[in-house]
Structure formats: structure tokens, C-alpha cells
Amino acid sequence: MPNLFGLRDLTAEQLTYLIGQSRSMLEVLQRPVPVVPALRGRRIGLMFFEPSTRTRMSFELAVKNLGADSLNFSAGGSSLSKGETLLDTAMTVSALGAHCIVVRDSHSGMPEFLSRHLDLPIINAGDGTNEHPTQALLDLVVMGEEWDDAFAGKTLSIVGDISRSRVARSNLWAARTLGMTVRLVAPRTFVDPGLEDCFGVPVFTDLEQGIRDADAVMALRVQKERRQAGGPYIPETLDYFLRYGLTRKKLDDLAPNAVLLHPGPVNRAVELAPDLLYNPDRSRIQRQVTAGVAVRMAVLYWALGASDE
């Protein structure tokens, strides 16, 4: 069954296929009516147990653009408040006729857990601090547009809250598979011990060294909501911005040709200077949002057997 739990076990050929399918879906999005009936008659269960804007809305658009119907679930106001478990909810969505479930949850491994109880494809829309595969795929699509999909030998610097970032982990797995070099740039308290050994990547505590001459720089959100219960020390906002915040001058001086990425939402004047966010010369953040719809269309199309790949 074509589940998508993460990018850890995908081959370079599989990643290349999904990137190619996403490019085809981007072409669909350029049409006056960006709809194809590829999944007409199918129902997609969208189960989001965490707040989400970009991921949720892009999946909703992806479902509509493929001609399918969605069964939308949000934790607020649901029977979870009455004691229903997440598995109970998923079983209910399945019984309502879902052909596929997209799930986002704060517990790492939840998509795999659901797959052991449900006989339908499960797509991971972000699980705990484990992986966020469709986000990393859209990052690859955007970077590939700049490099003609020649990923091998390119350098990606990931700056910020590494230890809490499922986006960073998915990008690390994918980048290694495609032959890219990855640098992690963060305060030591933002990097789990042993992470550099696990992935075979260097960790820089100095921003200048970490992003110099990189081909792409990805800033990560400082995830205060995931550090409230104990957790490592969070630097003061101004201190963090001065040491690790990205500005136009820093990028121009250290990585003049780099593509700037951010998975969103952005903490202004923490990870990025406000004038960088929508700067068309340097930022590809809005392009990431658009590519996210195409990637999710491609993943749904693949998961529901519309392709032989």
C-alpha cells in the first residue's frame, strides 16, 4: 500500500519521480481552470490534530483540484473532548468512506500507527518532531527550479531550531539521498546530541561559517510552543536575531547566490528581517506555498493508484 510516512526510506528514483509529478501538477495550476478529474469519486480524510495554515489549505486545494471530495476534521469541537481516541476518529473517517487519510499530529510515529489498523493509504502531514515529507518535497521542487534539478553537489544550510524541526529531518534524509551537502547552523541547545553523527553533517554555531557560499539557505522557525514544557534554553529574541537572524546584507555578503527558504510561519525579526520575507530577488517563500499545492496533488495522485509508479 503506498503510504508516505517520510522521506527516510525513499530512493533517489522515487524522489525524482515525485518531483517530476509535482512539476506536472504545477502546469495544471497554470491553467485558467486548475482542475483535473484524476481522482473523481474518491474521498480524502484530512485529519489535523495540530494547528496548520499552509499544509492544511494546500491539501484542501489539492483534493479539489484533483476532482476528489474531502472529509475535513479538526480537533476543536470534535468528539475528542468526549474521550474519543485518535484511532477511534480515524476509524470513523474510514467508515465514512475515505479512500486515503492525511494526518497531522503532535505524536511522532502516528501515521505508521494508523497504518497498522486501517486498510487505506496514510499520508504524513507532519508527525511530532519526526518528519514532514511533503514540506521537504516542495522545498526540493523550489530548489530544483533554480538548479534544473541538479541536486548533487549543492550545499543547503539549515539555520535555526533543528532539534524540534520535522522539516529539517525530512530535508536531511532527502538531501543525503540526492547527493547534496547539508550544514546545520544553530546554537548548541538547538541541536540534539549525536544528530550530526546520525546524518553525517557538520554543525556550525557561527552563522558566517555556516552559510558562506551555500547554494540554498533555509531558516527554521523558533518553535517556542514545543519547548514550553522544560526543553532547552531559548535565547532572547534580539540576541537570537543578532546571531542567527538572516538579513539582506548577511545573505549578499556571505551567500550571494543562495535561494532563501522558510517553511513558515515566520517569526519576523527573529529568523528573518521583515524586508526579506517577500523580497522577490532573494526569497522563494511564496513560491514554496504555491509548490506545496502541486506537491500534495502529486502525492495524492500517487497514493491512490492513479499512477503505475
Fold and architecture overview:
The structure is a single chain. With 309 residues, the protein is α/β, with parallel strands linked by helices. It has a five-stranded parallel β-sheet. It has a four-stranded parallel β-sheet with strand order 2-1-3-4, with helices on both faces. Helix 1 (12-29) packs across helix 5 and helix 5 crosses helix 6. The mean pLDDT is 92. Helices cover 38% and strands 14% of the residues. The two termini are 12 Å apart. It has eleven helices and nine strands.
Key traits:
309 residues, alpha/beta, four-stranded parallel beta sheet, 11 helices, globular
- What would you call the structural class? alpha/beta
Total beta strand runs: 9
For the termini, the CA-CA separation is: 12 Å
Strand portion: 5-15%
Number of helices: 11
- Spatial extent as radius of gyration: 19 Å
Query: Strand order of the main beta sheet, please?
Result: 7-6-5-8-9
Taking the sheet with the most strands, its summary is:
5 strands, parallel
Give the CA-based shape.
globular
Uncertain runs are none
Average pLDDT reading: 92
